[in-house]
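Hi C.,

You asked whether I'd gotten around to modeling the 111-residue construct. I have! Everything is below, sequence then structure, no commentary in between.
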Amino acid sequence: MIKEKLKRYVQILSNIEDAQDKFMWIMDFGKNSRPMSESLQVRDFEVRGCQSQTWLVPHFVEDKIYFSADSAALISKGMVCIIADVYSGSSAQAIKDFDQKEFEKMNLSSL
């Protein structure tokens, strides 16, 4: 499930040749993502190491984890919302077992 979701984003981004256009797509994705309640924008859910305030909140439903995400900067929000979508609906074990290096296939290091 995780690989399939990530593959969808890899395909979308690989069809965008210009780096600036990729940047804009990610920002638009963040802009169009559901805003997070301010009550969840707390230190416990803050992603450490980001240049802008960014939050990733887990929600547990039975044995699955769903994530909501937000950021003060649109590029960060777009990226964290992609990550949230890729992992949402997965078990903790599936997330743990997933090779994080797979995200490199999105080729975002140049942005």
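If it helps when you're writing up: The radius of gyration is 14 Å.

Thanks,
B.
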